C-alpha cells in the first residue's frame, strides 16, 4: 500500500529552536541556529544546502548521533513524542532499533569488513525478535532487488560494489520496519544510473511501508523528482521551506535561487522515476 503524508496527524519528529555548536581549533562554530522543523507521518522530506549548511548535523540530532565535538546549546528534538535528550542510554538505543532507520553516506564503511553479509543481516534483525532463517535473509535481499541473494549472503563487504552495499544497508534499515527513515547523502559515491535506481528503491520502500523519509541532499534536481517537501538550509538556519513544487519553482529566498541557478539545464527524468534495476555485483 502506498502512503501519503497526513497533515492532520501529530508530527513523528518535532524540532524546536535547536541550536548546536562545534568546538574546533579555531574556536566555536555554530552549526544549527534555532532550527525548528516538523516531520509528518508518511512524508518525503528533503533537507538541502551546501556543505557546512548544517543539514547533516540536523539529521544526526534526530537519533542523538552527534559527534563528541558537537554540543546542543538549546532547543529540543522530539521523536514520536519522546525528548531524545531526556532518554537514558537504553532508551535511545531502543528508539534507534525499533523506530528509526538510517541509510549511511558510505555503505561499505558502515559494514563490518570481517563478517559476511548474511551474518550482518542476521545480527541486524535478531534483536527485534524476528525470523533470521536463510529464507528470510534471502527475501530481504530480494526486496532491495539484489539479483543473486543466495550468493550475496556469503560475500564479504570488500567483495561487493558500492551499489550493492547500499542496497544491503537499505535492507538492514527497512528490516526494522522503522517509522522514520533518515538518509544522509545516500548516493553521493555512486554513478548516475545506480544513483537513480537507489533513490527509486528508497522512495518505493518508504511509501510502501508508510514511513517518513528525511533525506539529506545537495542535489536539487533529484529532490525535485522524488520529494514532496523541502527545507533549504544555509549557515545553520532553515531559510526556506515548503512544497517542492513551490520552493523549487518560485523560490522566495536569494540563497535558494542561487542553488537553483547552479542546476544543469538538461531535462529531468519522468516524475515516476527510472525503471528499477537489479544489482549483481
Automatic annotation (TrEMBL):
This protein's name: ABC transporter ATP-binding protein
GO molecular function, one term: ATP binding
Keyword line: ATP-binding, Cell inner membrane, Cell membrane, Membrane, Nucleotide-binding, Translocase, Transport
Domain ABC transporter per the UniProt entry, residue ranges: 13-260
Keyword Cell membrane belongs to the record: yes
InterPro entries, alphabetized: AAA+_ATPase, ABC_Ni/Peptide_Import, ABC_transporter-like_ATP-bd, ABC_transporter-like_CS, Oligopep_ABC_C, P-loop_NTPase
Family under the similarity heading: Belongs to the ABC transporter superfamily.
Species this chain originates from: Leucobacter weissii
Origin superkingdom: Bacteria
Signal peptide feature range: none
Pfam family, any one: oligo_HPY
PROSITE patterns in UniProt: ABC_TRANSPORTER_1, ABC_TRANSPORTER_2
Membrane topology label: Peripheral membrane protein
Gene Ontology CC, one term: plasma membrane
GO biological process: peptide transport
Protein localization: Cell membrane
Amino acid at each position: 500500500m502506498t502512503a501519503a503524508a497526513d497533515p492532520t496527524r501529530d508530527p513523528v519528529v518535532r524540532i524546536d529552536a535547536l541550536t548546536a555548536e562545534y568546538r574546533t581549533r579555531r574556536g566555536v562554530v555554530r552549526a544549527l541556529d534555532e532550527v525548528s522543523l516538523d516531520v509528518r507521518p508518511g512524508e518525503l522530506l528533503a533537507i538541502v544546502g551546501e556543505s557546512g549548511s548544517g543539514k547533516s548535523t540536523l539529521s544526526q540530532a534526530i537519533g542523538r548521533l552527534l559527534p563528541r565535538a558537537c554540543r546542543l546549546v538549546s532547543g529540543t528534538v522530539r521523536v514520536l513524542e519522546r525528548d531524545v535528550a531526556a532518554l537514558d542510554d537504553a532508551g535511545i538505543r531502543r528508539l534507534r532499533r525499533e523506530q528509526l532507520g538510517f541509510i549511511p553516506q558510505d555503505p561499505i564503511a558502515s559494514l563490518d569488513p570481517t563478517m559476511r553479509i548474511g551474518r550482518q543481516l542476521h545480527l541486524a534483525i535478531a534483536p527485534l525478535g524476528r525470523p533470521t532463517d536463510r529464507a528470510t535473509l534471502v527475501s530481504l535481499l530480494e526486496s532491495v532487488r539484489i539479483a543473486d541473494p543466495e550468493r550475496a549472503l556469503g560475500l564479504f563487504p570488500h567483495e561487493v560494489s558500492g551499489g550493492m552495499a547500499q542496497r544491503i544497508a537499505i535492507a538492514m534499515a527497512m528490516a526494522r520496519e522503522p517509522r522514520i527513515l533518515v538518509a544522509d547523502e545516500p548516493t553521493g559515491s555512486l554513478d548516475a544510473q545506480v544513483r537513480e535506481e537507489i533513490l527509486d528503491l528508497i522512495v518505493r520502500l518508504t511509501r510502501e511501508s508508510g514511513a517518513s523519509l528525511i533525506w539529506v541532499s545537495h542535489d536539487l534536481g533529484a529532490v525535485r523528482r522524488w520529494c514532496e517537501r523541502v527545507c533549504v538550509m544555509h549557515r545553520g538556519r532553515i531559510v526556506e521551506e515548503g512544497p517542492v513544487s513551490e520552493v523549487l519553482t518560485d523560490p522566495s529566498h536569494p540563497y535558494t535561487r542561487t542553488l537553483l541557478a547552479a542546476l544543469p539545464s538538461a531535462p529531468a527524468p519522468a516524475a515516476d522515476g527510472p525503471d528499477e534495476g537489479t544489482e549483481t555485483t
